[in-house]
């Protein structure tokens, strides 16, 4: 198998792994009652842009090879780094879902009797789910030997992140007040000790 083929295969496996991790939480979330939500047009648009970059564009490339004009020959080390990042992304996804448990939601929602999660992977990072998605987008950039499909995840998820993290933190601050402020003082947003 070529390095390009291996990269695409690992990307597909990463997406399948992500879905396997998320599926039981999605099912449970549909049964839970939402107390506060920030869903609506802007959130739907952010989610669509992110899904396009992390799912539609690379999925189209994996299935059809389009857009072939942006292909390049990847280095073996590039694919190896992509594999490592894909594994790290899935580990982070699992840890965040496990820590959130019933508090997990796909969108900007707070459940009835929602609790501020500050343990596990959330002890040092406020948004480790975003850390996982950034890692997944980086893995995609290394694994997809195509300038458009490879970088689409960074653009798509980056758009969601920078337009969503502020409203999400405002919602949490409104719900949890000083507890959330103190939590923010001792944690980083997505990368411990850096940002």
UniProtKB/TrEMBL annotation:
- Reply yes or no: does the keyword Membrane apply: yes
To which species is this protein native?
Answer: Fulvimarina endophytica
Which controlled-vocabulary keywords does the entry list? Answer: Membrane, Methyltransferase, Transferase, Transmembrane, Transmembrane helix
One GO BP on record is:
methylation
From the Swiss-Prot or TrEMBL record, state where the protein is found.
Membrane
According to the record, the segments passing through the membrane are: 6-25, 45-63, 75-95, 133-163
Would the keyword NAD turn up in this protein's UniProt record? no
| Superkingdom to which the source organism belongs | Bacteria
Q: Identify the Pfam families for this entry.
A: ICMT
Which PANTHER family has this protein been placed in? BLL3993 PROTEIN
In the bilayer, the protein is annotated as:
Multi-pass membrane protein
Q: Which NCBIfam families match?
A: isopcys_mtase
Main localization is membrane
The molecule here is called Isoprenylcysteine carboxylmethyltransferase family protein
């Amino acid at each position: 198998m070529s390095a390009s083929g291996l990269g695409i295969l690992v990307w597909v496996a990463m997406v399948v792994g992500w879905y396997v991790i998320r599926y039981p939480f999605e099912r449970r979330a549909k049964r839970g009652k939402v107390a506060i939500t920030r869903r609506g047009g802007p959130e739907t648009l952010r989610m669509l842009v992110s899904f396009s970059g992390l799912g539609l564009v690379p999925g189209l490339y994996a299935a059809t090879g389009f857009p072939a004009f942006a292909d390049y020959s990847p280095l073996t080390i590039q694919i190896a780094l992509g594999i490592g990042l894909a594994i790290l992304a899935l580990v982070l996804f699992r840890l965040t879902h496990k820590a959130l448990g019933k508090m997990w939601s796909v969108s900007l929602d707070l459940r009835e009797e929602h609790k501020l999660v500050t343990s596990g992977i959330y002890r040092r990072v406020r948004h480790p789910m975003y850390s996982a998605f950034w890692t997944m987008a980086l893995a995609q950039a290394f694994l997809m030997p195509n300038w458009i499909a490879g970088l689409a995840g960074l653009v798509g998820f980056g758009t969601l992140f920078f337009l969503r993290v502020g409203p999400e933190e405002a919602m949490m601050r409104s719900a949890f007040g000083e507890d959330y402020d103190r939590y923010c003082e001792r944690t980083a947003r997505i990368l411990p000790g850096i940002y």
